[in-house]
Design brief:
Elements lengths: L1 E6 L2 H5 L5 E7 L8 H12 L9 E5 L8 E8 L3 H16 L5 E6 L5 H15 L16 E6 L6 H22 L7 H11 L5 E6 L1 H7 L2 H7 L7 E8 L8 E5 L1 E5 L19 H16 L4 E11 L10 E4 L5 E4 L6 H11 L7 E6 L3 H7 L4 E5 L2 H14 L3 E4 L16 E2 L7 H10 L7 E5 L5 E2 L5 E2 L4 H9 L7
Parallel strand pairs: 1-6, 2-4, 2-5, 5-6, 9-11, 9-14, 10-11, 13-17, 14-18, 15-16
Antiparallel strand pairs: 3-4, 7-8, 8-11, 12-13, 15-18, 19-20
The protein binds ligand BES, manganese (II) ion and zinc ion.
């Protein structure tokens, strides 16, 4: 999909040749003297366009305008919530007509946040998954022009949003692929493909390398599967060497059957999404490749399958993590924390500014926060403030969760330094407490995206979250020196 930023007033928008012209009308809209303004005024006066947010009016071949179809949508206060709602409603209406060229016109200058929400919503509504369909209709929407009033300087946020969309779509693509089309080896290839862009480098560590490093927790999970594990390392170098990197660690369980502690059959297919964290890291790198910002970012993806077999790790087994801490694996379905803890230890070597892990870690987080906000855990004030800001500006929302020491009680065991599960209460937090044990060397944050990485039910599909959130955070760290 191609995005183009234009400056428009209602007069020039009326002259725009396109399949659909989508006008976002804020409550403060002041009509001019052009035909489009006249039409809007008439519709408003006649009450044919209600003044409630997300109200729509669809007009076929409007006289005096160059577009094939005009869609008016009310966006009320023109804040992010109403812009999202309005664009979603309009896209649902427009979709059936399969437009190729869409022009979206802001009657009132958007801010960075509303521009971001409008464009990501257009992209979201027009996305189609195609990879494993023998016959499929690819996305029809190829050109999106975005019109903002004269004088609005939105070039930078526009470029960032376009790059975010590209990253979100790469993340969705990999997350949606079934597990047999998205093995650890496939993910490694996808990461290597990103290394063809300037400033990006990719290294793949294989089973032998992980053994040499002593990644006993990661390898315990990988053991049950015939698919070879891959530990993916991506580097984006946009700032000077002296600038400490941010490390993003993405959980890359390409299929989570639960292992010997096997999951029930219902909806087990959705565990192909257990690499949404990994996919989001790939997505961020795609966006970095397009934007080439002045930051240093490292991506780590421990990728493997969690399967039962005669070689699989068993409940009660004790393994030694790369940190030297021994872990009693009481439940093989709590595998995410096992692959992550070795990646977190590996991250120490980069002397990071901060490490953020992103994981579909716990069903408990889905119960706690649903699909609206990702759970965010940190004890670092700088990270906490930065993520809260990025959450707002990207509208890819997260919410602070606690890390009180008392939550770690249940992880105690007589047979190892730590157990990999506590009881059911506070499951998202006890998982985070487990991870925290491996992060003493740097500021650390953890995003549990179990509820936000994908949607279940009839609209089943990856969301591409939290690529927007991560990208906004990473870009907030840009330095002025190259
Ligand atoms: N990948 C799952 C978490 C998950 C479950 C995400 C359902 C989204 C929907 C994770 O590996 C897991 O199985 N976690 C267990 C942990 C438990 C055994 C302590 C869980 O949440 O049930
Ligand atoms: Mn699991
Ligand atoms: Zn899992």
């Amino acid at each position: 999909m191609n995005f183009e930023l234009m400056t428009w007033d209602t007069a020039s928008a009326g002259d725009e040749k396109c399949d659909v012209l989508l006008m976002l009308l804020a409550a403060t809209f002041k009509p001019g003297r052009d035909p489009l303004s006249a039409l809007i005024s008439k519709a408003l006066k006649a009450g044919d366009l209600a003044d409630k947010p997300a109200s729509l009016l669809d007009i076929y071949r409007p006289v005096g305008l160059a577009c094939a179809r005009l869609v008016l949508v009310q966006v009320g206060d023109a804040k992010a919530g109403n812009i999202g709602k309005g664009v979603r409603a309009a896209m649902a209406l427009i979709k059936a007509a399969k437009p190729k060229k869409l022009s979206v016109c802001f009657a009132q200058a958007p801010d960075n946040q509303t521009l971001h929400v409008a464009l990501t919503t257009v992209a979201e509504a027009s996305y189609v998954y195609a990879t494993t369909l023998s016959k499929c209709e690819p996305r029809t929407l190829t050109h999106v022009k975005v019109g903002v009033p004269y004088g609005a300087d939105l070039a930078t946020p526009f470029a960032q949003t376009v790059a975010a969309i590209s990253g979100i779509e790469l993340a969705k693509e990999w997350a949606n692929r079934p597990a047999n089309h998205a093995t650890p080896s496939h993910l490694a290839k996808a990461a290597q493909a990103l290394a063809k862009f300037p400033r990006i480098k990719c290294d793949i560590l294989n089973l032998k390398d992980a053994e040499k490093l002593g990644m006993g927790a990661f390898l315990a999970v990988a053991k049950g599967s015939a698919e070879p594990p891959k530990f993916i390392e991506l580097h984006y170098k946009g700032a000077s060497k002296t600038q400490a990197p941010v490390v993003l660690v993405g959980k890359g369980i390409t299929f989570d059957s639960g292992g010997i502690s096997i999951k029930p059959a219902a909806e087990m297919d959705e565990m192909k999404y257990d690499m949404c964290g990994a996919a989001s890291v790939l997505g961020v790198f795609k966006a970095l490749a397009e934007l080439q910002p002045r930051v240093n970012v490292i991506g780590l993806i421990p990728a493997c399958e969690n399967m039962p077999s005669s070689r699989a790790v068993k409940p009660g087994d004790v393994v030694t993590s790369m940190s030297g801490q021994t872990i009693e694996i009481l439940n093989t379905d709590a595998e995410g924390r096992l692959v992550l803890c070795d990646a977190l230890t590996y991250a120490e070597r980069f002397k990071p500014l901060a490490v953020l892990d992103i994981a579909t870690l716990t069903g408990a987080c889905v119960i706690a926060l649903g699909g609206v906000r990702s759970g965010f855990f940190t004890t670092d004030d700088t990270l906490s403030t930065a993520l809260a800001k990025a959450s707002e500006s990207s509208q890819d929302l997260c919410w602070p969760m606690p890390l009180d020491e008392d939550y770690a009680e249940g992880l105690k065991t007589s047979f190892a330094d730590v157990a990999n599960v506590a009881g059911r209460p506070g499951g998202a937090i006890t998982a985070a407490k487990f991870l925290q044990r491996f992060t003493s060397k740097y500021p650390w944050g953890h995003l549990d995206i179990a509820g936000t990485g994908w949607k279940s039910g009839s609209a089943k599909g990856a969301t591409g979250r939290p690529v927007g959130l991560l990208l906004h955070y990473v870009l907030s760290l840009q330095t002025s020196a190259a």
